[in-house]
Task: structure prediction
Amino acid sequence: MVMGGAKMSLINILLLIIYIVLSVTGLILVKLGGTNHLQIAEHTIHISVGIYTLWGMLCYIASFIVYIIVLPRFDLSYISPITTGAVFALVIVTSLIVLKEKISITQWIGICSVLFGIIMMNLKK
Result:
């Protein structure tokens, strides 16, 4: 099966899933990062980074590296909207579950629209 200019092999699908999971995890961890802090002090420079923020940054960097691997395997005009939409939708759902954020009806409509758009992009021409 060809999708967006790339053969949809199992490795390509796994790379996409890894990218999306790392991106969402990184964003959620950065958000959670306001509590525990790791202090790094040297001379006059003091950096205070929450441990969750640090892990979030590492996840986000790892997601970027995976995305660099994914990009050459697909048409950019195809893969960018799909991954962006998937991350967007999963961040909202994860925020609801993990962060206990309130999700408005407008956001739910947006999630459904994004998912509908992803489905439409995958239909054969």
